[in-house]
Amino acid sequence: MKIKICGMRESENIKEVAALSPDYMGFIFYKSSPRYITQIPENLSQEIKKTGVFVNEDYEHIMEKAELFGLQAVQLHGKETAELCDKLKNENLEVIKAFSVDEEFNFGTLAPYIKATTYFLFDTKGKNYGGNGVTFNWGILQNYTYQHPFFLSGGIAIKHIQEIKKIKQSSLPLAGVDLNSKFEIAPGFKNTDLLKQFKDLMQ
């Protein structure tokens, strides 16, 4: 089970989170987010995939950030096309395409994105592009019929561990979880003790 920790902003806090050795760390390059970041500390472990989170940005802007910060993955949280995803994937980047999910979500609309992405990410549909702090009804994942791996996101907390394990043991291709708002002391500042507890309990 991969663990992606998203939305750090402070240099020292980023280093503390990195010391937990998550699989991915997400850095948000969306200016309207309270977790918007302009600088990533150097010398983070290459074992941790640095992931840039973008919302409705063009190819040139995303690639500029990818090259500047040595990103290994990008997470696209807006209305990006499958063509853009494919173009970025061809740049040797892992591409995580996020989708905002509610009871009416049609998983059939994801078909064009399967070959163009590395993972999907299912987040709760809300007023913001992520970071809403609430879960969606995970029962609707039973309507997901593809074998393309996905991350689960949206208000995940320690109390959800057993439910996450059940999903992982099912036939669904759950690749990992995305942790953010429920592990914060303040927006962009993570509680590393709580993150460590979650990681230990998931093993």
Q: What does this protein structure show overall?
A:
The chain has 203 residues and is of the alpha/beta class. It has 5 helices and 10 strands, in the order βαββαβαβββαβββα.
Q: How large is the radius of gyration?
A: 16 Å
**Counting H and I runs of at least 4 residues, what is the number of helices?**
5
Overall pLDDT metric? 94
Spans of 5+ residues with little confidence (pLDDT < 50)? none
State the end-to-end CA separation. 8 Å
Structural class: alpha/beta
Largest sheet: 8 strands, parallel, barrel
Largest sheet, spatial ordering of strands: 1-2-3-4-5-6-7-8
Number of DSSP E strands: 10
Output the helix-strand order.
EHEEHEHEEEHEEEH
Helix content: 10-25%
What portion of the residues fall into strands of 2 or more residues?
A: 15-25%
Shape: globular
Describe what is shown at a glance.
The chain contains 5 helices and 10 strands, in the order E-H-E-E-H-E-H-E-E-E-H-E-E-E-H. By secondary structure, the protein is an alpha/beta fold.
Helix-strand blueprint:
Layout: E1 2-6, H1 11-18, E2 24-28, E3 49-54, H2 59-69, E4 73-76, H3 82-89, E5 94-101, E6 119-124, E7 150-152, H4 161-169, E8 174-179, E9 184-186, E10 189-190, H5 192-202
Descriptive tags:
single chain; 203 residues; alpha/beta; eight-stranded parallel beta barrel; two-stranded antiparallel sheet; 23% helix
